[in-house]
Design brief:
The protein is an alpha/beta fold. It contains eight helices and ten strands.
C-alpha cells in the first residue's frame, strides 16, 4: 500500500525548499502560538508560492476560533485544517473546509472518531499542555487496535523518524504518517536530509 506522508511544523523558507526536494504528500504549518514551530499565516503566504503545487498545505490549530481559522485558510492558502484541541464535531462541520481531527492515542476510541465529519483522524501522543510535536513515540499497539476498528482514514503521528517509520507502518497499518520532531536537527529546525530520508523510507514500504 502507498502510505500518505505529511511533514509538519515547517517554520522557515528553507523548510519549503527541503519539502519540495523530499516530495511528501502534504506539509503542515502550526498556528498555535505556544508551539516552538509557530508561524503566522502572513509568513506562510509568502512561502507557499514556492511550494510544489501537488503538495497539500495543512494548517494545525488548537482551540482557535472559526473566524481565525477561516482567515488563516484564506491568507495562507491552506487546503486542509487540522484541529488539535477541544473542538467539537459540530464546530468542525461548520467550518466549511476540509478537516482532519487529532486525538491522543492513549484515550482515542474508534466509536468517538467515527462521529466526526472529517477526512482523516490523526492519532498523536499529545498531552493537554503540548497537543502534538512531543517527539515521544505513540503506543503502536493501541494505534493498531484503533486502525483495525476504524473504517476511515487514520494518520499515525508521534515520535516517527526515518529509523522507525517502516516498523511503525508495518505494526499499525495506518492510511498515513505525520512527522515533525523526528525530521529535525533540534526543536523547530528541520533537517533536509532527514526529511528526504523519511519520505524515501515511506515510499519503500
Amino acid at each position: 500500500m502507498r502510505v500518505y506522508v505529511k511533514l509538519c511544523g515547517l517554520c522557515r523558507p528553507s523548510d519549503i525548499t527541503a519539502a519540495n526536494e523530499a516530495a511528501p504528500d502534504a506539509v503542515g504549518f502550526v498556528f498555535w502560538p505556544r508551539s516552538v514551530r509557530f508561524v503566522r499565516p502572513e509568513d506562510v503566504a509568502q512561502w507557499v508560492g514556492d511550494l510544489r503545487p501537488d503538495l497539500e498545505r495543512v494548517g494545525v490549530f488548537v482551540n482557535a476560533s472559526a473566524d481565525e481559522i477561516r482567515r488563516a485558510v484564506a491568507t495562507a492558502g491552506l487546503t486542509i485544517v487540522q484541529l488539535h484541541g477541544n473542538e467539537s464535531s459540530t464546530f468542525a462541520a461548520a467550518l466549511g473546509v476540509r478537516v482532519w481531527k487529532a486525538f491522543p492515542v492513549a484515550t482515542a476510541s474508534p466509536e468517538e472518531a467515527a462521529d466526526w465529519p472529517v477526512e482523516a483522524i490523526v492519532l498523536d501522543n499529545g498531552t493537554t499542555d503540548q497537543p502534538g510535536g512531543t517527539g515521544r513515540a505513540a503506543d503502536w499497539a493501541r494505534a493498531a487496535a484503533f486502525a483495525r476498528a476504524f473504517a476511515g482514514r487514520m494518520v499515525l503521528a508521534g515520535g516517527l523518524t526515518p529509523d522507525n517509520v517502516a516498523e511503525a507502518v508495518r505494526a499499525v497499518s495506518p492510511w498515513g504518517v505525520d512527522a515533525s520532531s523526528g525530521v529535525e536537527s533540534e526543536p523547530g529546525r528541520k533537517d533536509p536530509a532527514r526529511m528526504k530520508e523519511f519520505v524515501q523510507r515511506c515510499r519503500a514500504i
